[in-house]
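DM from R.C. (forwarded with permission)

"hey, sorry to bug you on a friday — could you get me a structure for this? deadline for the figure draft is monday and I only need the backbone to look sensible"
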Amino acid sequence: MKRIFTSILLSLSFIISGTAQDADALLSKLSENATTFGSIDATYTSKMVDVKSNFEETLNGYIQIEDNKFKLDLGEFVIISDGGSVWTYEKETNDCYIEDLEMLAEQGIYPTKIFTIWEDDFKNEWMGIRTLEGRELVQVNLYPSGADASEKAYHTIQLFIDESALEVVQLVIKGRSGVDTDYHINSFKTGMNIPASNFFFTESDFPGVTMIDNRI
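My reply, with the result:
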């Protein structure tokens, strides 16, 4: 499960331009825009590549976010959090694991931070303009800079931003162990009315489910 929280397309040419100050200004605009979201309803495709073992995995995800709560559907797994606990339901085994959100968050990135990840302890670098599927996007790299920077499972996060729409179109997490994960945002809606029940795992909705509580 760490892959989902530590790792969440193609090698194209880009033009090196701009300054660190440009990146600060753009990320500030993104943060300001994010305060208007209210809630998020999005779909994405993630591609994980493990260079050392020559392994690739592609997943289609659907996520809903409201404040610090989220519901993430990955097909084989459904991950739900009410902001305090996390329920990870595995469809194949009909098992549900319960964890403390805070403990999982310490392992890396968790879903509610994906669209505002730059607000944490990061240095940034403006990398220039890159063309993806006919769209000109700004690439900004983030590098962990806090006291625990060397302990993070990743060393770089690449953001690809539509500057005019103020949208993050693509996010690439470069892992220290050689595992990279690429998230491509397919659809992105905000201000949706999401039922509170979406952010809680109701055991009675899953007949025969085995609940495994790993909370301390």
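R.C.: lifesaver. The chain has a mean pLDDT of 84.
me: no worries. The two ends are 18 Å apart (CA to CA).
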